[in-house]
Write a structure and sequence with these properties.
By secondary structure, this protein is mainly α. The chain has one domain. It is about 70% helix and about 0% strand. The protein has helices spanning about 15-35, 40-60, 65-85, 100-120, 120-125, 125-145, 155-170, 175-195, 215-250; strands at about 90-95, 195-200. Strands 1-2 form a two-stranded antiparallel sheet.
Length: about 250
């Protein structure tokens, strides 16, 4: 069933850095969202400055390909935030803005998904983790459309189907697995703290929508796919631009 996932290998690399990135981001995300749940706009902006410092620090030890992926993820996700939140009002932040910590936060979240995907623990337990994610996500989605919760979640069930398709057919299933854990964490903490709230009715199809939707990780998988797919193109373009510049200046 999960033959496309990496096989367990006792010799797979062990990088303490990967666990540090993941642990640091999980902690910072949780703390920041809880603080912002009742903070002033000034404090929210300060969190943004700190988040940029943290992201830059985490990128110091990464290669140029991962750095470019993070840059693309930040740009694409930030544009998506303004469209989905400010324009479409699919979800709304406390001050009806996109907080300054959100762009660098997306960078840290993406980097965490990558770090988890390449970690020894994930590589050794890929099939077990995939099974856990699918079972957990399925139960959450079924609960959302069962009629039991007051706020239904048709959107979440639809998104989870998309997530599963990405997991089986996507180019980077391990990254998507990592994204499920960090994204589910931040969505649960953020909505519980009141940092943002998802609209009970999705604005395009008028479907019921949970707070958060059960399959919300699918949106983050889209960000990951765009970052991974376009990074090589941008790197080649930058290299050609550099070569052209050297040619005209010599």
């Amino acid at each position: 069933m999960f033959d496309h996932l990496p096989k367990a290998d006792a010799n797979c690399p062990h990088r303490t850095r990967d666990y540090f990135i993941a642990g640091f981001t999980f902690f910072c995300v949780g703390l920041s969202l809880v603080i912002d749940g009742s903070a002033s706009l000034e404090t929210q902006n300060q969190l943004g400055v700190i988040a940029w410092i943290f992201l830059i620090g985490l990128l110091v030890g990464e290669n140029k390909e991962v750095r470019m992926q993070v840059v693309i993820a930040v740009a694409f996700a930030t544009a998506g935030e303004h469209f989905a939140s400010i324009y479409m009002e699919g979800y709304t932040y406390r001050f009806e803005n996109v907080p300054l910590y959100v762009p660098p936060g997306h960078g840290m979240v993406y980097l965490t998904a990558v770090a988890l995907a390449r970690s020894r623990f994930f590589l050794m337990n890929a099939k077990t983790l995939a099974t856990f994610v699918i079972v957990t996500g399925s139960l959450w989605s079924l609960w959302g459309v069962s009629g039991i919760p007051e706020q239904g979640d048709q959107v979440g069930a639809f998104l989870f189907v998309i997530f599963v398709i990405c997991l089986f057919k996507g180019r980077s299933p391990m990254v998507y697995l990592g994204a499920f854990f960090i994204c589910t964490w931040l969505e649960i903490v953020g909505t519980a703290a009141g940092t943002w709230k998802w609209a009970s009715i999705e604005p395009v199809f008028n479907w019921s929508q949970g707070n958060p939707p059960s399959g919300v990780a699918a949106w983050y998988c889209l960000v990951d796919a765009v970052a991974i797919g376009f990074a090589p193109i941008f790197l080649i373009g930058l290299q050609k631009l550099g070569n052209w510049y050297k040619t005209i200046t010599h």
